[in-house]
Amino acid sequence: MTRPAVSRGVWALLFLLIGACKAEGPSPANFDPFPSGSAARYHFDLARNFYKTPELEASERRLLVAGLERFQQVSVGTLNNADSLLAAFRAQDSLYLDVTRHGAYLDSKYFADTRNTDASEAAEELRLRAGESFAPFESVLVSKPNTFFTRMEGTQPALRQYRFAVETLRRDAVHPGSSRADVGSKGRDRFYTTLNGTDFGFVETPAGSLKVPQDWSAIASNPDRRVRREGYLLNQKGLTKNLDVYTDILVSTAKSLNKAAQRRGYTDYPEESYSDRLLNRDQVTSFLESIAAASEVNKRIESTLIDHYRRILDVDTVHVWDITVSEPGMDAPRFTITEATQAVLEATKPLGETYTRELAKLLDPANGRMDVAPGPNKAQRQGFSTGLVGFPSLFYQGAFGGYVDDVVTLAHESGHAVQNMLMTSNGVLPRYAMGPGYFTESFAVFCEILVLDHLYKTAPDKAHKIFYLQQLINQGPDGMFRQGWESLLEQQLFDRVGTETTLTADEIEAMTQSTASRFSVWFGPQSERKLMWLQPTQFFTWPLYRINYVYSRVLALRYFDLLHENPPQFRDRYLGLLMNGYDAPPDTLLQRFVDVRLQDPALIDGAVHVLDSWLKELEALYAS
Prior knowledge:
Blueprint: H1 8-18, H2 46-49, H3 54-72, H4 82-112, H5 117-143, H6 146-155, H7 163-174, H8 179-183, H9 186-196, E1 202-205, E2 208-211, H10 216-220, H11 225-240, H12 243-263, H13 269-276, H14 281-293, H15 296-313, H16 337-347, H17 353-363, E3 370-371, E4 384-386, E5 394-396, H18 404-425, H19 437-457, H20 462-499, H21 505-516, H22 538-541, H23 547-565, H24 567-580, H25 586-594, H26 601-623
Parallel strand pairs: 3-5
Antiparallel strand pairs: 1-2, 4-5
C-alpha cells in the first residue's frame, strides 16, 4: 500500500520542521545490516513468484489485453439473465486479478531497476486499458434499479456478494471523476520547486560544516546545544523567505479544489474528500473535536518529556531544539536484517499462528518476496508492499539500514502484505481487497505498535527501555494529536478560502497557533514552533489526506487496548476482520468483528487509556 511519494531530501526537511521527533544519534561504526554477504539474498525473485521469464509475462499480457477487449463487447442484453450477469461479474473478477498481478510484476521490475521505464509504462497502460474495458459494464450496472438486482439475486443467490460493489459504483457515478485530478499537480510541483530551491544555510561545528536540512540527523542529535539551536533557526529563516509563495499555493489549491468539487455536485472539497472515505463532514469534525477534548493526556506526555530533558540537560528552559538529542551516552540501536525480521515475528505472535505463519513466508529470503538490500539502480522509496489477492505480496525498501525506523517500516508494510495473503486464503474477491486508506492503514500501524512494544519490553537496559518507550509513546500522540490538529486546521483553511478572497501567512500562523494549542503545550502566542503549517507536505501535495493518519492511529491504539483486555478473544475476532476484506463500510465491519464503532466514545477513550498506561511506565523509568 503505497503512501504519497516524498523524496529523501524532503523527508530530512520534514524531520527538522517537526522539531520534536526523536533523533537516533550516532551509531556504531562499520555496522552492516547484511552481514556475511547476505545482501544478495534480499532481492526479489520475480520468476519464482510471478512469471518464469519476461517473455512469458509479455505473452500472457497480450492475451490479457485481448480478454479485456472481448469483455468490453459484453452485450447489455445478456445481463438480463441472472446466470449471464454472474458470469460477467466473475469474468471481470478474473480480468482484474490478472491486471493487478501483471501490474505488481511490472512495478516491481521498475523499482528494482529504475532504468526499466518500459515496465512502468506498460503497467500504467494496462491499468488504463482495464478501466476502459470495464466502463461499459459498470455503466449498465449503475443504470439498473434495485428491483433488478433483487430479482436477479432471487434467481441466483451468488449475486448477493456483488451488491456492495454496485452500491459503490452508484455512489461514484453521482459525482463522476475526481476534483483532485481536475486540479492537477501544479501546486505540488510549485511547492517542491520552491522548497528544493531554498538555501537554508550551514551550521559550523568543530567537525566541519553541516548543511540544513541535508545533515539534519547530525544537527538534531548533536550534543552541542548551539548547533541544534542554529540548525532549527536556520530552517525557520529559510522557510520565511518564501512565505508568500507557500500561502498562495495553499489558498489557490483550496479554491480550485472547492470549485471543482462544486462542479461535481458537492458543497466543497472537504465533503468530496470525506465522502470518498465513506465519512462525512459532521462525523470527521466531531471526531477531531473529541480528540481535542482528550488532549490532556498529550499535554501531560509533553510536559513529562520536557521535565526529563530539563534534568538530563541541566537547563532551566527546554526549547524545541533540545528534545531531539539522544539519551546521554547511548548509541542508536541498529539491527541486522535477520534481527529485524525476528523482532517482527516475535512481536506479532499475539496475533496467532495463522498470522505469523504467513509473515514468516514473507520474511524468509528464500522465497524472494523481499527487496530491501541496496542496489545501484533501485528506486529510493522508504518502503511499501505490493500486491492484492491471488498472488504473493512483496515488500520493497530502497535500502534497509537497520535503524529503528527501518524495523518499524518493515513491520508496517509486512502488515499489509500478510493481510493480502490472509484475504487470499479466505477467497476474498479482488474488488473487495482494498478499502478506505485509514481503515487499511490501521492494521499496519497496529503492527508498528506491537513491534515497538516488543522492543521496549525486551530492551537490555534502562537507557534502551526509555528510548523504545519514548518511541512507542511518540507513535500515539504524533498520529492522534499532532495530525489531529493538522487535520482540523486544514479543514478550517478550506472553509476560510470558501468565504474570503484573501488569506495571509500571518492569518494562517494565527489559526495554527490557536488550533494546535488546544492539543499541545508547545503552541500559543509565544510559541517557538512557528510555521508548522508548512510541515505537513500533504497540505500542498495531497490535500485532506492526513485525516487517514488520525483515524488509523486511534484505531490501532484501540486494537492494542482490546488485545490486552482479552487476548484470545480479540486475536480470533481481529483475524476474522483481516481475512474478510472490504465488502461493507468500515463502521459495519468494525462493529461486526471487533465491536468497535467510529463514533463511539470508547474508541478515543481506549486510545487514551493506552497512552496513559505508557506514560505511567515512562514516569516510573525516569524516577528509577
